[in-house]
Amino acid sequence: MNETLRTRDCDKVLLVQAEFDGELDAAEAATLAAHRQHCPACQAAAAALQRARLLMDGGLYEPAPDDVRRRVMARLAAAQPPAPAPLWALRSRMRAWWSAGIGFGLGAACAAALALLIIAPSGPDPTQELVASHIRALQPGHLEDVVSTDRHTVKPWFDGRLDFAPPVKDLKNEGFPLKGGRLDYVDGRPVAALVYQRDKHIIDLYIWPGVLVGGRLPPTAEYHGYNIVHWRWGGMTFWAVSDVEPAQLSDFAQAWQRAL
Length: 260
Ligand SMILES: [Zn+2]
Prior knowledge:
This protein has 260 residues and is α+β, with helices and mostly antiparallel strands. It is built from 9 helices and 7 strands, in the order αααααααβαββββββα. It has helices at residues 13-20, 26-36, 40-57, 66-79, 87-99, 108-119, 126-137, 151-157, 246-258; strands at residues 146-147, 178-186, 189-198, 201-209, 220-223, 226-233, 236-242. The chain binds zinc ion. Residues 10, 12, 35, 39, 41-42 line the site of zinc ion.
């Protein structure tokens, strides 16, 4: 029981971890699956992760004793900026440890890291924050800062308002016409929100650079009657939020990824 993810055996091993966390899109996952058929290192990594998950799901880990918890939290507080690290940030750090080649197995190091996860203060759940933002935007006058069905109007509107250029696509032919866009704030940073319509329903598409969320966040979620679909593309992270049916929101996500 001492498997490790060893990047020196195959540089795709980290993708195995990403796939395990649901962070690959369909094309990336298919490419990885084809590669893994012929790669013992990636097969071993996938098997080790699967075993680890089974152990974790089986209740292997127990809460840390109070004094250990206090000491770890004090050390974390000393080593970090004052804001409490959200759970996903600690998970990202775990992944950074993997990628640094430390490659711990299921020994003491792993148990210690998981203890950190268990006692970490739970951070804001991005799905809840996104749904709250979506509901706020539905109030009269809050939906769009720029009202236009023309992506060549909406896209340049973001110039100078964000430090990245969000891709803007019109999906009128797919039944999701573009309505406009606005600036929004998620997880303390300005993000682009594109507004689409499906019949009488509004779909907000939030976009920002990077892969913010680690862990095992599912690509789809539901919160208080709103549906959420999450994907990554071109170095950006995308969140579609709406009260349309889950199947329709998936259609939207797929149409968006297909569209040029
Ligand atoms: Zn491989």
